[in-house]
Automatic annotation (TrEMBL):
Protein name in the entry: Heterokaryon incompatibility domain-containing protein
InterPro entries attached to this UniProt entry: HET, HetReg/Transcr_Mod
Species assigned in the record: Glarea lozoyensis (strain ATCC 20868 / MF5171)
Domain Heterokaryon incompatibility stretches: 43-187
Transmembrane regions listed in the UniProt entry: none
Length: 273
């Protein structure tokens, strides 16, 4: 299935996700492209958690049965269009995982692959643990820097943060593995457009970022917990933290040396340490 990539060229493989209904088997085609530049902005790169390599399921790849992790299969199933193919770059499929030499070489090109993609789709996982409730909260949080985060000035916000189910759903959404992995740092940092996919919902990066930034501006300054002891606004800062961390790396326009990169990211997890 995998023809070797030419070592001396810029060749890389894309994955064309074939159209289909949600319940249809996932079918993909491998395509070798002579250079990333040639396909610049015409593919999307997938950012996801590999999860346990033992937990696999079958997809069709170039017409043959191919095993991928269940989490990847689910991501592809949710990303698939009904009528149109979708061109992706997916590490586990685009790179021949049985070819160690190729794996080592392709890892050094990840920066180029993620930065030249039209966008990066970050797969947070299926819809569970009330994730839709958590996502709905982002339609209620203030998105203007001028709006205070005070209960008596915003009834909808007060109802939201006093709702235990919503606060629990937010906590669980931001504890999902994607936020705490090592590889996602570069994938999310380099993305021109970052889109989150959670079950059937798609969320733009700004949908997460704008309220988090507004909150940061107000909490601890003009708005804080002392206004009302039953006002659990502090928890929001905790939930927004993974967003703020990624925002920090996305706004870096300098090259950071390894000594500065290790402390903030050393606690992150990856399948193959
Ligand atoms: Zn304020």
């Amino acid at each position: 299935m995998y023809l070797p990539l030419n070592n001396n060229s810029e060749e890389f493989r894309t994955v064309t996700l074939q159209p289909g209904n949600f319940e249809d088997e996932v079918e993909c085609l491998l395509n070798t492209v002579s250079a990333i530049d040639q396909l610049s902005n015409r593919y999307e790169a997938l950012s996801y958690v590999w999860r346990s390599p033992e937990s696999t399921t079958a997809i069709k790849l170039n017409g043959k049965t191919h095993q991928v992790t269940k989490n990847l299969e689910s991501a592809l199933r949710h990303l698939r269009y009904i009528k149109h193919p979708r061109v992706l770059w997916v590490d586990a499929i685009s790179i021949n995982q049985d070819d160690i030499e190729e794996r080592n070489r392709e890892v050094t090109r990840m920066g180029q692959i993620y930065s030249q993609a039209a966008g990066v789709d970050a797969w947070l996982g299926e819809s569970f643990e009330n994730s839709n409730l958590a996502l709905d909260a982002f339609g209620v949080f203030p998105t203007s820097m001028d709006v205070h985060w005070r209960p008596h000035e915003n009834e909808a916000l007060q109802n939201l943060v006093c709702d235990e189910a919503t606060m629990d759903a937010l906590s669980k959404l931001f504890k999902r593995p994607w936020w705490h992995r090592m590889w996602i740092v570069q994938e999310a940092t380099l993305a021109k457009n970052l889109t989150f996919v959670c079950g059937s919902r798609q969320i733009t990066w700004d949908t997460f970022l704008v309220p988090a930034k507004c909150y940061q501006k107000h909490f601890g300054f003009c708005c804080n917990a002392s206004v009302n002891v039953t006002w659990p606004i502090e928890s929001l800062g905790h939930f927004f933290r993974p967003i703020v961390v990624i925002s920090g790396s996305r706004s870096l326009h300098e090259t950071m040396d390894i000594e500065r990169l290790i402390p903030p990211f050393r606690g992150r997890i990856c399948t193959d340490p």
